[in-house]
C-alpha cells in the first residue's frame, strides 16, 4: 500500500486539517499518517482555541514516522511559528522526503493573516524551496508576489513569478494558483516546469466549503504517492474535490465539511 504523511494542525470537528487529510488519503486507498503541529478547538462556525505542539514533540513525531513507515508523499498544511517550520524543514532534509506538497496557509478566506511575518519569511526560505508542489489561493499568491491577482493574466504572471523566484533560490516546485476566490470561475492556473496549464473547474453551488484547501492538497499528495505525475495528480485532485462538493453534505450550523467518502462509493 502506498503511504502519505500530513504535517498540519488538528481540526477537532473533522472538516479540515489532518482529519480532512487522512479522510482524503483513505478515500484514495493510501495509508495515511500524521504529525500534528497544533491542536485547535473549532467547528463550522470558527476557531475558539489553538494549542501549538512544541518543536521537540513535532520532531519526535516526524522521527517516529520516517524511521518506520516511510511516506511516499508529504503534505504540509498550516504551521504558524518559525520554530516549527525549521523543525519540519530539517526533518525533510534529513530523511530525504519526496513528493512534498505545501499548502502555504497564510491568509484566511476572510482575508485575515494566519501566520506571523517572521514565520512567513522562514516558510518561503526553508519550506517552499523543498516542495515539489505549492498550492496558494489568490490572497496567499498576492502575499507571496506583492501583486494584485484579479484576472487570468495576473494569475499566470503570479504563478510564473513564484516558480522563477523559487528556482533562483535552488527550489524546483511547480505552482498551483487556486482560483476558488475568483467570483465567476473555479479555474486553477498551474505552472509546471515553467509552462502554464489551465485547469478549468466547475463552480459548485454549495456554501459548505470548510477544508477545501486541505482536501485538494492532500489529494494531490495521495496521487503523487501512487506514481502519478504532478500535472496528472493536480487534475485528478481537482476532480475529486469537485465531486466532494457536489455530494452536498450538510453538517453543522456554519460552513460545513465536504463528503470525503463519496469517492469510495464510485470507486468500489
Description:
The chain is built from nine helices and nine strands. It has helices at 17-27, 55-66, 82-94, 117-127, 138-145, 152-168, 212-225, 230-246, 262-266, and strands at residues 3-11, 31-43, 46-52, 73-76, 100-102, 133-134, 174-177, 188-192, 195-199. The two termini are 16 Å apart. 40% of the residues lie in helices and 19% in strands. A nine-stranded mixed sheet has the order 3-2-1-4-5-6-7-8-9, sandwiched between helices. α1 (17-27) links the parallel β1 and β2 (31-43). The chain is α/β, with parallel strands linked by helices. It is globular. α3 runs parallel beside α4 (117-127).
Question: H/E element string?
Answer: EHEEHEHEHEHHEEEHHH
Helix content: 40-55%
Main pleated-sheet profile: 9 strands, mixed
Oligomerization: single chain
Query: Order of strands across the biggest sheet?
Result: 3-2-1-4-5-6-7-8-9
Distance between the first and last residues' Cα: 16 Å
Strand percentage? 15-25%
Q: How many DSSP H or I helices? A: 9
Q: Overall pLDDT, averaged?
A: 91
Structural class: alpha/beta
Q: What is the number of beta strands?
A: 9
Ranges where pLDDT stays below 50 over 5 or more residues in a row are: none
Task: Indicate the overall shape.
Answer: globular
Amino acid at each position: 500500500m502506498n503511504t502519505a504523511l500530513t504535517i498540519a494542525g488538528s481540526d477537532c470537528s473533522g472538516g479540515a486539517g489532518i482529519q480532512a487529510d487522512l479522510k482524503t488519503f483513505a478515500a484514495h486507498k493510501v495509508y495515511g499518517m500524521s504529525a500534528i503541529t497544533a491542536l485547535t478547538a473549532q467547528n463550522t462556525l470558527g476557531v475558539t482555541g489553538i494549542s501549538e505542539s512544541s518543536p521537540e514533540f513535532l520532531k519526535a513525531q516526524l522521527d517516529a514516522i520516517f524511521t518506520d513507515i516511510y511516506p511516499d508523499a508529504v503534505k504540509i498544511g498550516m504551521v504558524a511559528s518559525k520554530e516549527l517550520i525549521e523543525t519540519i524543514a530539517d526533518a525533510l532534509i534529513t530523511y530525504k522526503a519526496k513528493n512534498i506538497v505545501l499548502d502555504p496557509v497564510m491568509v484566511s478566506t476572510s482575508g485575515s493573516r494566519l501566520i506571523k511575518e517572521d514565520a512567513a519569511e522562514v516558510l518561503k526560505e526553508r519550506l517552499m524551496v523543498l516542495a515539489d508542489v505549492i498550492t496558494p489561493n489568490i490572497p496567499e499568491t498576492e502575499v507571496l508576489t506583492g501583486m494584485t491577482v484579479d484576472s487570468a493574466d495576473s494569475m499566470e504572471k503570479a504563478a510564473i513569478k513564484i516558480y522563477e523566484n523559487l528556482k533562483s533560490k535552488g527550489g524546483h516546485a511547480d505552482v498551483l494558483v487556486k482560483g476558488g476566490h475568483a467570483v465567476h470561475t473555479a479555474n486553477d492556473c498551474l505552472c509546471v516546469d515553467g509552462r502554464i496549464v489551465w485547469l478549468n473547474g466547475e463552480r459548485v453551488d454549495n456554501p459548505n466549503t470548510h477544508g477545501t484547501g486541505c482536501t485538494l492538497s492532500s489529494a494531490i499528495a495521495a496521487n503523487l504517492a501512487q506514481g502519478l505525475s504532478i500535472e496528472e495528480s493536480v487534475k485528478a485532485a481537482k476532480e475529486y474535490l469537485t465531486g466532494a462538493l457536489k455530494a452536498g453534505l450538510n453538517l453543522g450550523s456554519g460552513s460545513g465539511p465536504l463528503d470525503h467518502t463519496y469517492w469510495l462509493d464510485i470507486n468500489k
